[in-house]
Input
Amino acid sequence: MLTDEEVARYRRELGITPEKVGDQSRRGRTHGLLSTYRNGCRCDPCRGANRDKERGRRRRNGSGRTHGIVSTYVAGCRCGECTEANREAKAAYRARTRRRAS
Ligand SMILES: [Zn+2]
Ligand SMILES: [Zn+2]
Output
């Protein structure tokens, strides 16, 4: 029969540390994902995923285009950021014209 202390030591040696929730969840996660970063992980791959997302929002990505703006959407890009920018612009335009018309 192991004492609690021994159990804890074996767990630490095996890398199982339920006392440290942060460590345990870090092991079970898929890293390099924005969702993992948002869940609180700050490891390098996850921070990188967050950085890429921030960068992609306004700056050029590999294709040389600036995403998240209407002109890129109009030019034919249908990525999530450009589609969203177009949707927002459309909604703003509709709001303006509606106000003018009434
Ligand atoms: Zn991570
Ligand atoms: Zn785009």
